[in-house]
Amino acid sequence: MFADLKEMDIKKLSEIYDFGSRESFVSLYMNLEKTNERFIEKRKKACRSVLKGNSELIGNFDKTMQNIEKYLGMNDREHGQKGLAIFASNEHEFFRAYKLGMPVEDLMVVDASPYIRPLAKLMEDYETFGLVVLDNHRARVYVVSSGRIEDKDRITEDIMKKHKKGGMSQARFQRLRQGAIEHFLKEVSEEMVRLFSKDNVVKIIIAGPGNAKIMLKDFLPNELKCEILDSIDVDFDTADGYLVSQGEEVILKDEKEIAFKNMARLKDEILKHGLAVYGLEEIIDAVKNGHMELLLVSNGYRLRGWICEKCQLFDSGIKDKCPNCSGKVAEVDVIEEIIEFAERTGTKIEFVDDNPILQDLGGVGGLLRFNS
Ligand SMILES: [Zn+2]
């Protein structure tokens, strides 16, 4: 079984850090569709060279890497698995591995906390969705999460066998047939409610040939009806893998539209002097205090900065000691720190591709909660 990666896991990962801000955590992302044994060796060697001078850190790093390599040696790639994410620290007795149904880029980060940015991005791109394939007597209902089918069910109604019997009028036969189809659609609707509420599905795609996918809408409760993103015209027997990839395309398109709308909201709020937050200091403040509803991040943007080992104050630039408490500082990517705080305080995160306005605002922007 794949580890079930959920929003909750990322929140938990975001709450874990080394209180001394020492580089004691290893985060490893692997793209399993390419060979990458050399990648780990190369990164391990380079990180060892940097950590060698500190006996505590190098000791922990070596043991942590041994744990990771032991895991890699014992766990084969599963069918459909495309990626792997591991977060580990021997010293903190911490080890989590997530088998991913979606590809990730090779990355190994040694830091004071698990490096969660690629996971946060994956969660946004591969949002859980519900998928229904049906014709007028058969249906398959799926929940797709992190790029793979988590839950599924089949419904078949014996409609075709209800042949016209001797003496039965054509009109009566049609009525019976229609009744059977409606009964079937009602059953599909009930199964959708059951499965989708269990897995907190909020986006639904309906697929199949002909009219049944349109008729189904009449049998759905309103809250499900308004979650339907799109319907796709395909044969009932279309392979699962193809359906999932078609569904993902719809979800990605929807994500892009949501990002576009959120950018429009940000622009609007800036002009109105409303709920927008911009400027690094204001962003850090709002995200730490949990005042932000939505954080917009320029995809791939990083910013060199520092964090205080004692009071967790952080900012961009270079400092030799904390201006607040004179504590020791460590070098960090300020954007990753902001993302970690956002996860901890339950702020939604939106990664935005090549947007010159967001880049102009410093790569990050945000919208405040109404009641903050
Ligand atoms: Zn400090």
Description:
The structure is a single chain. The protein has 372 residues and is of the alpha+beta class. It folds into three domains: 1-123, eRF1 domain 1 (Translation, Eukaryotic Peptide Chain Release Factor Subunit 1, Chain A); 129-254, eRF1 domain 2 (Nucleotidyltransferase, domain 5, 2-Layer Sandwich), CATH 3.30.420.60; 275-372, Ribosomal protein L30/S12 (60s Ribosomal Protein L30, Chain: A, 2-Layer Sandwich). Helices cover 40% and strands 25% of the residues. It has helices spanning 7-14, 37-51, 55-74, 117-125, 170-198, 212-216, 222-225, 240-271, 280-288, 334-344, 356-360; strands spanning 25-31, 83-89, 94-100, 107-111, 129-134, 138-145, 148-156, 204-208, 228-233, 276-277, 292-298, 304-308, 314-316, 329-333, 348-352, 364-368. Strands 7-6-5-8-9 form a five-stranded mixed beta sheet, with helices on both faces. A four-stranded antiparallel beta sheet has the order 3-2-1-4, covered by helices on one side. Strand 6 (138-145) and strand 7 (148-156) form a beta hairpin. The longest helix is centred in the C-terminal third of the chain and has 32 residues, at 240-271. It starts with 6 loop residues before the first helix and ends with a strand. The model has no long low-confidence stretch (mean pLDDT 89). Zinc ion binds at residues 308, 310-311, 313, 322, 324-325, 327.
Q: Give the mean pLDDT.
A: 89
Discrete helix count? 11
Q: Kindly provide the name of the CATH class of the largest domain.
A: Alpha Beta
Q: Could you name the CATH homologous superfamily of the largest domain?
A: eRF1 domain 2
Strand content: 15-25%
General shape: elongated
Question: How large, in whole angstroms, is the Cα Rg?
Answer: 25 Å
Uncertain runs with pLDDT below 50, 5 residues or more?
Answer: none
Helix-strand sequence: HEHHEEEHEEEHEHHEHEHEEEEHEHE
Structural class, from helix and strand content?
A: alpha+beta
Whole-number total of structural domains: 3
Which ligands accompany this protein? zinc ion
CATH architecture tag of the largest domain: 2-Layer Sandwich
**Percent range of helical residues:** 25-40%
Could you name the CATH topology of the largest domain? Nucleotidyltransferase, domain 5
Q: What's the story with the biggest beta sheet?
A: 5 strands, mixed
Strand order of the largest sheet: 7-6-5-8-9
Report how far the terminal alpha carbons are from each other. Answer: 42 Å
How many β-strand stretches? 16
